[in-house]
Amino acid sequence: MSIQKKYDPSQIEDKWYQYWMENNYFHSEPDEREAYTIVIPPPNVTGVLHMGHMLNNTIQDVLIRRARLQGYNACWVPGTDHASIATEAKVVNKLKQEGIKKSDLTREEFLEHAWEWTHKHGGIILEQLKKLGASCDWERTKFTMDDDMSEAVIKTFVDLYSKGLIYRGYRMVNWDPEAKTTLSDEEVIYEEKQGNLYYLAYEIDGSDEKVTIATTRPETILGDTAICINPNDERYTHLKGKKAIVPLVGRTIPIIEDEYVDIEFGTGCLKVTPAHDENDKVLGDKHNLEVIDIFNDDATLNSYGLHYKGKDRFVVRKEIAKELEEKGYLIKTEQHINKVGTSERTKAVIEPRLSDQWFLKMDDLVKPALKAVLEDNEIKLFPKKFENTYRHWMENIRDWNISRQLWWGQQIPAYYFGDGKEDFAVAETKEAALALAKATTGNEHLTLDNLRQDEDTLDTWFSSWLWPISVFDGIRNPENKEIQYYYPTNDLVTGPDILFFWVARMIIAGYEYLDEKPFTNVYLTGLVRDEKGRKMSKQLGNSPDALKLIEDYGADGVRVGLLLSSAAGNDLLFDVALCDQGKKFANKIFNAYNLTQIWEVSDQVAQPEVAKIAIDWYESKLQKALVELEDQYSKYRISDALMITYKLVWDDFCSWFLEMVKPTYGLPIDKKTYDKVISLFEENLKILHPFMPFLTEDIWQRMTTRSKEDALVVSSWPKSTTVNEQLLVDFEMIQEVVSGVRTIRKEKNIANKEGISLTIVNNENAATNLDAVIAKLGNVEKVNYSDEKIEGALSFRVKSNEYFIPMEGAIDVEAEIEKLTKELEYVEGSLRIVQKKLSNESFVNNAPEQVVVNEKKKEADALAKIETLKASLASLQ
Q1: Pick from 88, 391, 442, 763: most CB atoms within 10 A?
Q2: pLDDT band for position 13 (50/70/90)?
Q3: Secondary structure percentages of the chain, helix, strand, coil, to 5
Q4: Terminal C-alpha separation, the chain
Q5: Could you tell me the CA-to-CA distances from 210 to 218, 229, 233, 236 in Å, in that order?
Q6: 725/617 Cα distance (integer angstroms)
Q7: 704 and 823 housed in the same domain
Q8: What values do phi and psi take at 147, rounded to 5?
Q9: Residues ≥6 apart with Cβ < 8 Å to 180
C-alpha cells in the first residue's frame, strides 16, 4: 500500500469493521477448540450509548479480542433487555403526545405500539457499539422478548411454582406511582432528604384531653385506624382502653398498646396507618385493625381523601398542614432528615402499598450461590472487596417480588377460572392450564373462555437472570450442543450497582437449572465520573456525547482514553484530554510505521553490531512485557495492561529501538535487520490490537499483501520465550549514559552532527559490549576507558561510573564563556534585588510569612546557581 502521511481514523474505521463483518471473523460455532465466552450485560432496548457503556464494552472487547488471538473459540453474545418499566414509560409518553391514553387501549393494541417502538429504537445502541469496535457475534444477537427467550422465562416460572418456590401473597410492596407498578426491594434507592416533623393533636373521645403525635406525612392521617402507645410508658397509662378522634376526619379509632413503639422517639405516641407503612401493617395484623387505603395508583388521593380527592400526595401534604394549623390541630413543625425511598428507574418517591403480588422464595435458592463465591471460590469477584457487599445482600435476602403491573413483558402464566383469588392454574399454555383446572375442580364443562390470564407481567430481571443460559437455549433444551459447549461462560464485565440485581441472581439461576456456575470471573468496573468527581448524568450535563468523542478522537483514541484511568473497581475520573492522549498514541504508532516504509532495504549490506544488540534487547523487552501482561490480565487490571503496552511501544520501540536500527541518513538498511523490525512491529500490533483494533488492523494490512485468513483480528498472540535479564539490566545503564550525553549536548548547544569522544571511568565494572549503542545514539565518535578523571572535561555520573567529554573540539569555548558570563551577570543581578528586599526590616516584619519564605528560597537558589556557573567558567578558562 502507498504511504499515508497522516493517520485519519475516519478514513479507516468503517472500512475495517465492514471487512471483519464480511469475513465473519466475530462468529463462533462449537468446534474442537476451547471456548472463551462472554455474554454482554444487555442494555435497555430504549438505550443509547453513554460513557458507562463505552467503558464496559471496551473492557469486554479487549478480553474477547485477546482470547481470539490466543487461539480460543471466542464468542461474545450481544443483545438487549426489554426493560419493562423504562420502555412502557416511553411508549405511554409517545401515545400521550398523540392524544392516546393507555387506558383507552386493549392490551393487544398497546403491545402493537410497544413492538413498533422497539423495532424503531431497539437496535440503536448495538449499532453504536459497532462504532466503538465491539467484536460481538452479531449473528447471535438476542432480545429478552424473543419468542424462545420468553418461552424460557415462562417455563422457569411454571417450574419454580411447581416446586413450591413461587407463591401469591397480599403484602406491603414498593409502589412506583409514576410507572404504576410494584418494585422489588432492590429497585428502591434510599436517599436522605430534608423534610418536616409535624406535631398533631388528637382529641381523646369523651374528654377534653388531647394527645400529641409526630408524623412526617400528615396526609396519611386520613388512613389512620389506631394510635399505639408503649405499655411501659407511664405518661400514657391513663389512655389504655380509650379511643381517639382523627383530626379533620372525625373517625373514632382505638388506642392500642405495643412494645414496638419507641418511647424516646417523638412524643412516644404512634399513629397507625396499616395501608401505608410496612411496620404499621404488622401492627394492624397483630391487633386486627381496619385497613384504609387513601391513594389511587398514581398517588393522588381517592374517595377517602375527603375534599382532597384527586390531588397529588405532595400537594395535599402542604394543604392539609395548612388546614390542620388553621383548625388548631397542628401544634408545631420541626425540620427533620428522613430516608426516602425512590424508584431506581423513574426516580419517583415510592409509596408503600398493600397489594396481591407474586413472590419467589429465596432462602434456599440463595445457598449454592453464597457457597460458590464465599466458600468454594468457584466464582471470583474482581476487586475482591465486593465479596463483603455480596455477602451482606445475600445473607439478608428477602423474597423477590417478581410481578409488575405492566403490559410490556412476559405475562404471568397463571389462569383464573373461579371467583376466588385462589382459583387459578399455572401452566405454560392456556390449554395446559385448562387441563389442570378441570383436574383440580372436576368440572369437565370448563372451556378456554372460562380462563382469564393474570394481567401482570414478570419483573424484567426475571428474564435477564437466565441470560447466560437462555442465550444458548439451555432452559428449553438443556442438553443441546451449544449450552454444553459455551456454558459456563468465562468472564462477566458489569457495574457493581447491579451486583445483586443481576449478577447474584444469574448465579442463583445457574445452580438451580444447570447445577453449575454461569461464569468464572466477575469484573466489576467503576463508575465514570467527570474531572470533578461527579457522576455523569444528563441532568448535570457533564456527560459527553459518546459518538462525538469517537468522531473527534477516533474509536481507538477513545478506548485508550477510557482505559488509561480505569483502575480495577475504582471510579474513572474521565477527562477528554485522555482521549487526546490516545489519539496522539495512535499517531505515534502510525508515524513509526511510516518511518519503516521510507527506508531503502538492501541485501548487500551487513548487519551492524548496534542493530544486533537492539534486536536482542527489544526481544527481551517484549518477552518481559508478555509476562507482565499475563499477570495484569489475570488480575483484570486492564488499565495496567494497557500502560505496560503503551510504554513498551512508545518508549522502548519508538524512542529507543527504531533509533538504534534506523540507517544512517542516505544509506540503506540491511535486509536482515529490516525483516526483524517488521516482525517485531507485527508482534507489537498483536498485543496492541485488543486496545486499538482499527489502527492495528490497518497497519497490519499495509505492511504486506495478505490473504483474508491472515487478518490481524484472527492472527496469533506472541509466543513466550526466554528473557535475557542481564541484557535488560545492562541496557538500563546504557540508556542513562545516552541520556547524560544528550543532556550535555543540549545544555552546551553541541549539535548532533558534531561528533564527540567519551571517556569512561568504569568503577561499576559495567559491560562494555553495548558501547556501539552509546556511540550511535549519542553520536559519540570514540568511547575510551580510563582509570583517571579528565581535568577540564564536561562530566556526569551514572551510578558510580564517571563519564567525561573533553571540551576541545566539542564546543565553541569563546561562545560558551560568553553565554555563561551573561547568565552569571543576570543571576547576580536577581540576587541583589532579593537581598535588598531581605535587608529591609520593614519588608521582613510586615510582609506575609509565605512571601518572606519565597524570597529566601529565591536567594538560596540564586547562590547555588552562581556557584555552579562560576565552576563551569573556571573549567573553561
Answers
A1: 88
A2: very high
A3: 50, 20, 35
A4: 58
A5: 17, 14, 17, 11
A6: 9
A7: no
A8: -55, -45
A9: 297, 298, 405
Are 60 and 113 members of one domain? Answer: yes
Domain with 803, as residue range(s), is 727-811
pTM above 0.90, yes or no: no
What digits encode the pLDDT tens for the residues 401-446? Answer: 999 999 999 999 999 997 767 789 999 999 999 999 999 888 899 9
pLDDT confidence band for 1 (50 / 70 / 90):
very low
Host H or E run for residue 333: strand 330-343
Same domain membership, residue 800 and residue 831 = no
- Is 403 a domain residue? no
Residue finishing a domain among 676, 696, 723? 723
In a domain, 430, yes or no: no
Of the candidates 576, 514, 515, the residue with the CA atom closest to the CA atom of residue 542 = 576
Average pLDDT, the chain: 91
* Res. 867 pLDDT band, cuts 50 70 90: confident
Spell 813-825 as b/e; 16+ CB within 10 A means b.
eeebeeebeeebe
Say if 426 falls within a structural domain.
no
Same-domain status, 551 and 648: yes
Q: Are residues 469 and 561 in the same domain?
A: no
Last residue of a domain, one of 794, 811, 828: 811
Q: What are phi and psi of 420, to 5 degrees?
A: -85, 160
State whether 608 and 706 are in the same domain.
yes
- Look at residues 762, 153, 118 and name the one whose alpha carbon lies nearest to residue 469: 153
CA–CA distance, 44 with 25 (Å, rounded to integer): 26
Domain assignment present for 455: no
Please, what sign has the CA dihedral across residues 523, 524, 528, 529? negative
Residue 602's pLDDT is what? 94
In terms of domains, do 65 and 192 share one?
A: no
